[in-house]
Specification:
By secondary structure, the protein is an alpha+beta fold. The protein is built from 11 helices and 14 strands. Strands 9, 10, 11, 12, 13 and 14 form a 6-stranded antiparallel beta sheet that branches. A 4-stranded mixed beta sheet has the order 3-2-1-4, with helices on one face. Helix 1 (about 15-30) crosses helix 11 (about 335-345). About 45% of the residues are buried.
Length: about 350
């Protein structure tokens, strides 16, 4: 029987989403016959039969407001790394770790490097691809250089506790006229994102994003349809179109039932759909992604499409897009997770596997 450790939680601002993903994944894998350990990086080993599937924004039982350590701008959240690598009983004996950590060090290659050093297979992309995808600006440079369209952008570096320089704001307004999207360079789930319609609102938007990351990405706003493509192994799944209330796919629109509508597969001409899927696989390969990932796009009215970003640890919540795309391809949730586990289990590690004495299959 394959032993799987589902690793969730973390201390990033996506902790709640991670816990929902982790509990859903663990229970579904157990139903598929896997021997599952459910691990919260802060709380340790959890009983699978007692782990409720939370709603986004709920606190775990016993956790009070203020329990979570605030994270300074630009800091990599994850104060509870003492649980990794040697502090989790039985971790060295598992066959594969299912990484269900969103944002922060769970998605930027840090935890992936830990498992590489331990010689433990894990799901999803490796160290370099994880780091590149998390760093939106560097990923955009690679796309641009490879001829893959992406919205024009600027990057501002705002030191913790300081305000953005007037000259920098003036340069951005000059180089990127019109509507803008301002967001932290290395966050997910639209955390800290603001859509700016007037130049005089740019400063406040940059300051908001800088609360989460000292590097602030400012992009031209691309009017059009919101598309996302999941890549599973070598296969691109049906395209999902996202139609959020109000036109902006905010954190609330992502995780609140009824705040967004989804079309799966997206209503696109066959030739255009095939082009978007092909481009998604190109981006996946360009960054060196493995296992599975999700590639996000904006489609203009003229049929051109621009890549926004790549998510290497997509959510697996009841409203998540990858399971939605998989269902449209005839792949149910449990089968999807098993495929992801098998892809991770078969990865080539830089360091040979070291199994604990007496560990078995």
């Amino acid at each position: 029987m394959t032993r799987v450790a589902v690793l969730m939680g973390g201390e990033s601002r996506e902790r709640d989403v991670s816990r929902v993903t982790g509990t859903a994944v663990a229970k579904a894998l157990a139903e598929r016959g896997f021997d599952v350990m459910l691990l919260d990086t802060r709380d340790g080993l959890l009983r699978l039969d007692a782990a409720p599937v939370q709603r986004i924004g709920e606190r775990p039982p016993g956790e009070e407001p203020g329990d979570r350590r605030p994270v300074a701008a630009g800091e990599s959240a994850g104060a509870d790394r003492n649980l990794l690598p040697g502090g989790i009983p039985g971790l060295a004996e598992v066959d594969v770790v299912f990484v269900a950590l969103h944002g922060g060090w769970g998605e930027d290659g840090t935890v992936q490097a830990t498992f590489e050093m331990m010689g433990i297979p894990y799901t999803g992309s490796g160290v370099l691809a994880s780091a590149l995808a998390m760093d939106k600006e560097r990923a955009k440079r690679m796309m641009r250089d490879a001829g893959i369209a992406t919205p024009a952008w600027a990057l501002l570096d705002v030191a913790p506790g300081s305000a953005p320089a007037d000259a920098d704001l003036a340069r951005v307004s000059r180089d990127l006229p019109g509507r803008l999207v301002v967001k932290p360079n290395a966050e997910g789930s639209t955390v800290g994102l603001t859509v700016v319609d007037r130049p005089e609102d740019l400063r406040a938007a940059v300051e908001t994003a800088a609360r989460f990351d000292r590097r602030v990405l400012i992009e031209e706003y691309v009017a059009g349809r919101e598309l996302t493509v999941a890549v599973l192994g070598g296969e691109t799944l049906p395209i999902v179109e996202i139609v959020p209330q109000g036109g902006i796919y905010t954190y609330e629109a992502k995780y609140t039932q009824g705040k967004s509508r989804y079309e799966v597969p997206a209503a696109l001409p066959d030739e255009l759909a095939a082009a978007v899927q092909h481009a998604s696989r190109r981006v996946f390969d360009l960054l060196g992604c493995e296992g599975y990932a999700r590639v996000d796009w904006r489609l203009r009215d003229d049929g051109t499409f621009l890549c926004l970003e790549v998510n290497t640890v997509p959510g697996m919540t009841p409203l998540s897009l990858v399971p939605m795309a998989a269902r449209a391809a005839g792949i149910e949730f449990g089968e999807l997770l098993e495929r992801i586990v098998r892809l991770g289990e078969g990865r080539t590690l830089r360091r040979p596997r070291r199994r604990a004495a007496g560990a078995g299959a």
